[in-house]
Amino acid sequence: MESIKQTYHTILKSSHPLILSFHLGGKIIPVVCYLFGSWIVSFTTQFTLIILLLALDFYLTKNISGRKLVQLRWWFDVTGTKSDSSTPFTFESYKQYQDYHGPGINPIDSKLFWWSTYLAPVVWATLGVFCIIKFEFIYLLLALLAIGLTGYNVYGFRCCDKWEPGNTNGSGSGSGSGSGSWMQIPSFPNLENIQQLARIQSFFRPG
Question: DSSP alpha helices (H): ranges in 71-165?
């Protein structure tokens, strides 16, 4: 009980307590559903619910909590039009806005964001090992999916954190627009990309 109170007071010290709560919840709730969901719902419902929760956590971490808590954002360049071919990622970072005089990064936000982001794939990898030991290969698929999504966020944010604006040759280099689009959420692939996917799929159809 004391640890819960301490966690509550720690979150209250955050600059964005609501977003931080959603961020931590997005990491914890899928694990709880994985461990105890079968006690309440059927396997199909549990499987579907966990996939949806993992996808939601991936989106919230990548597009919302990363921007608000550590002022970092990354996304995969789906258009293939980047002039910098050293990485397929596009980055936006607080480092681009040297003249910004607003509030800096709260140390509570930064610490909890990075710890939870790095810890998530480790937890799922541990659960995956137990799946192999117990021959639960269906649940192993869930663990692998979770490792992929959480690990991809770790990689993206790690590269974004190491990225230096204007340096296109160093590790984790990328391109940030710096054109006032900081508060925008990255758009989904456009219609042209969907059409290209349809053409690829039609190639494998018989006749």
Answer: 107-133, 137-162
CB atoms within 10 A of CB 170: 11
Retrieve residue 84's tokens: 């910098």
Sign (positive or negative) of CA dihedral 98, 165, 148, 204: positive
- pTM given for the model: 0.74
3-state helix, strand, coil in the chain (%, to 5): 65, 5, 30
Alpha-carbon distance 90 to 63, whole Å? 13
191 three-state secondary structure: helix
Predicted confidence (pLDDT) per residue in 150-168, tens digit: 999 999 999 999 988 766 5
Contacts with 144 (C-beta within 8 Å, 6 or more apart), sequence order: 128
How deeply is 36 buried, as exposed, middle or buried, from its count of CB atoms within 10 A (0-12, 13-18, 19+)? exposed
